[in-house]
Amino acid sequence: MKPFSESCEQNKQVILETIKPLLQNYRSVLEIGSGTGQHAVYFAQHMPHLQWQTSDRQENIEGIQLWLEEAHLSNISSPLVLDVMQAEWPKLSVDAVFMANTLHIMSWHDVEAFFSQISKVLEKNPSLIIYGPFNYHGQYTSESNQRFDQWLKSRDPNSGIKDFSEVNQLAEENQLKLVADYEMPANNRILYWKTKLS
Ligand SMILES: C[S@@+](CC[C@H](N)C(=O)[O-])C[C@H]1O[C@@H](n2cnc3c(N)ncnc32)[C@H](O)[C@@H]1O
Q: Which domain holds residue 73?
């Protein structure tokens, strides 16, 4: 059965409204941690100029395929098996990397691997867009984010909401420069970086 994420249904429109102008001059996007594939289908439908490359860990590939088969869109590519911790990432050439609600699932070690790999493996020095909750100055931005973080850590002590400045420092060390930090509903953010060269 096709997997379903209620949160994707709730946030897909506001994410689209924010990322569409950022992606208007781009042609290709790699999504990391595509999850169910719902975001990919919605964003590819509403941004037909983009080729949307889905990816996730092996356990989510079949579910993403089911969404893609039903949507029947020529501008979504079949999911790649991609765990940010894998030593060899597929060689890709895309204009942007998109990741939603995945950084807080990862350990800090995963996050470091993610940033070092996107700068090394993707040929075009792509822009990076990350959606999700962040802490600022070591503080939660809401009580609901604090409860969410406690819940995440009760499942996996290595996961949890990351601090914006620590993530941004890692981004800078990997040749990315923050262009924008958008406030989103439900205490989420969209962070947008470009490579320092571009
Ligand atoms: C909460 S889900 C978010 C899925 C989707 N992006 C969304 O917004 O609904 C987190 C996703 O991160 C993926 N993920 C977690 N750790 C990962 C890793 N090390 N490499 C790649 N994906 C990972 C999971 O497989 C899952 O699909």
A: 6-195
Q: Give the count of domains, the chain.
A: 1
What span, in angstroms and rounded, lies between the C-alpha atoms of 55 and 90? 11
Do 12 and 4 form a contact (C-beta atoms < 8 A)? no
Asked if residues 31 and 64 have their Cβ atoms less than 8 Å apart, the reply is no
Q: How far apart are CA 111 and CA 163, in angstroms?
A: 12
The closest-lying atom of ligand 1 relative to the alpha carbon of residue 99 is 6
Q: pTM of the predicted model, to two decimals?
A: 0.97
Q: Could you tell me if residue 58 is inside a domain? A: yes
State the DSSP H helix or E strand holding residue 52, giving kind and residue range, or none if neither: strand 51-56
Phi-psi region of 184 (alpha: psi -120 to 50; beta: other; left: phi over 0): beta
Q: What is the pLDDT of residues 7-46, one digit of tens each?
A: 999 999 999 999 999 999 999 999 999 999 999 999 999 9
Taking the centre of ligand 1 as the mean of its atom positions, its distance from the CA of residue 109, in whole angstroms, is 15
Q: Is the CB–ligand 1 distance for residue 101 below 6 Å?
A: yes
The pLDDT tens digits for 146-177 are: 999 999 999 999 999 999 999 999 999 999 99
Supply φ then ψ for residue 41, to 5 degrees.
Answer: -65, -45
Radius of gyration in angstroms for the set of CA atoms belonging to the chain, rounded to a whole number: 16
